[in-house]
User: Fold Methylated-DNA--[protein]-cysteine S-methyltransferase from Rhizobium mayense.
Amino acid sequence: MHLINMDTISRRELSATRADTSNDIAYSIGNSALGTILVARSAVGVCAILIGSDDGALTNDLAALFPTSRLIPNEPRLRDDVDKVARFIERPEAGLDLPLDMRRGTPFQRRVWDALRAIPCGAMITYAALARRIGEPNAARAVAGACAANAIALGIPCHRVVRSNGTLSGYRWGIERKRALIEKEARA
Assistant:
């Protein structure tokens, strides 16, 4: 049990302490070169970066991802996060420095996502090579499933994974967006 000394804590700190244990997800929507982007944050960090063409569809996707959370729209403090994501899409070589909340994933998915985060901008890897990298050489299909379950586009760069023959395969946010990201990173 964590006790709070009310004599030494400010109201702001108390509010932040409450937020750390809440189930709230704040989000904001903006535009990018790839279309509409939605960035969502829990008390831990960014828990979703979704890409699409329709605000309503992105909001519905977020609600489906976090059915037990209270969603707080148009959060002003997330404008910086939305701007960072839009800048990353334009200039991927600058990186995307955001704290991530990957708790939604299974332990296996989180291992895959951690390995994806280690792939440098402009590099690509196959599903089979990624499976070997995490110590599961026969799990290429499961790795593909973990990539498909990723809700933190760009923060967890599953767009950098290709088939064994080097061709592009599915991408949660559309194969054309995947191609555009890979091409932009290759030029960076």
Q: What stands out?
A: The domain at 11-94 is CATH 3.30.160.70 (Double Stranded RNA Binding Domain). Helices lie at 11-21, 55-65, 79-90, 107-117, 127-133, 140-149, 175-187. The chain has two domains: 11-94, 107-187. The first strand starts at residue 24 and ends at 32.
